[in-house]
Amino acid sequence: MAKPTVNDRVLVHLFDYRNVQRDFPPDITQAGIAMSVGIRRSHIPRSVKKLVEEGAIEERRERVHEAGRRLKMYFLTGKGHRRAANIRKQIGGGRITVRSSSGETELPVSDASRLYEVSYTAILKNLGPGDVLDTSGILPKAAPEEREFVNRQADLLHMREWLAGKKPVLALYGHLGYGKSSLVRTFLDTAEGWRVFWKDLSEDEETTDVLKPLVHFASRKRGSPAKRLLEEGNIDGTMTALGKELNDSSSLLVFDNYSTVGEDLVDTFNALTYLLSRTEKAKMIVVAQEATPAYCRFYDRKMIEGGMVDETHIKGLSQEDSKLVLGNPRIEEEAMRRIYLLTKGNPLFLTLIREGNTEELKKKSRFTTPEIQLLMFSKTVEG
């Protein structure tokens, strides 16, 4: 695999912190970057200076979370974000040999990152001769910072009841910003005894993009029939073997960001649903956008009525919970009512209003400029 330059690795590292807007971590200081990327501290000033001159990053003085003094910190610009995303795409497609407790496996960097929960930066830092990655010495990457998780007890109870029941698939729908991923991650903290597989989907996913990491997850023994059949291109055979291997232990498969996907992937998830209905120890959660077109849904009414799929739609927060997210308990009642009518309890919108982040609110919502101004004014009105 072609090794990226030091500057490219710095951009890839900062990409993992692209959404940090407060509680700044030491990882984006010069010392933090040097440690994460695996280069000498003395080399960082020259590297970041070059990237600033190129317009890829910007330098700001901010306070490290829970620390007193301000330090130089570095953030991707729009240009840097695009450049880092392209570098990540190239790195993600490179193939490496992963050495773990179950043996050695050759797979793309993107799959290794997901399967072993290590960042691209950690993979590059720890990649040995012959592009071999020994996972025994790598710490798992930190989970992305989640939005506030406020009172989803009814949804959590429903998910626990689903896990204890007989339906193999839970299709969880919600609008953008409703905290679907946060809800599932919180639920997984209580799912004791289950091996969890998590995959974030994208619109350009194909069947093999889903099956490769899934087969690797399920196949914990050498000479796996599912691996061999997938390498031979025998998708039907792979599915049959996969069902047997998933049933060796209690496996919980989670696919996030399901939305507009190709017909090929719709068929794949339909087949997975039927496969899981014939297993005893494997279940699947598909986290989907509320706007997922009907033609992209991988099940029909008969599958719901037949007990194969539990279709659940999460709602926005209540007005009281919305007030908690806004962080202004003394907000005037009429002002709170205006905010709630516009946001409908969307946790993402409420968080952006609280932070005063008008630019991101404009990108994520369909609010007009006057509406955004009204929201920002209303959040500060106290009764």
Structure, explained:
With 383 residues, the protein is of the alpha/beta class. The chain folds into four domains: 1-93, Orthogonal Bundle (Arc Repressor Mutant, subunit A); 94-141, no CATH class; 153-313, P-loop containing nucleotide triphosphate hydrolases (Rossmann fold), CATH 3.40.50.300; 319-378, no CATH class. The chain is 46% helix and 17% strand. It is built from 18 helices and eleven strands. Strands 8-9-10-7-11 form a five-stranded parallel sheet, with helices on both faces. A four-stranded mixed sheet has the order 4-3-6-5. The protein has a two-stranded antiparallel sheet with strand order 1-2. A hairpin with a 6-residue loop joins strand 1 (57-63) and strand 2 (70-76). The protein is flat, with a radius of gyration of 23 Å. It starts with 5 loop residues before the first helix and ends in a 5-residue tail after the last helix. 33% of the residues are buried.
User: How big is the Rg?
Assistant: 23 Å
Specify the CATH architecture of the largest domain. Answer: 3-Layer(aba) Sandwich
Total helical elements: 18
Uncertain runs: 139-147
Q: What is the N-to-C order of secondary-structure elements (H for helix, E for strand)?
A: HHHEEHEEHHEEHEHEHHHEHEHEHHHHH
Number of strands: 11
CATH-defined superfamily of the largest domain: P-loop containing nucleotide triphosphate hydrolases
CATH class of the largest domain: Alpha Beta
Distance between the termini: 62 Å
The CATH topology label of the largest domain is: Rossmann fold
Mean pLDDT across residues? 85
Which structural class matches the secondary elements?
A: alpha/beta
The main β sheet shows up as: 5 strands, parallel
Question: Helix fraction?
Answer: 40-55%
- Count of discrete structural domains: 4
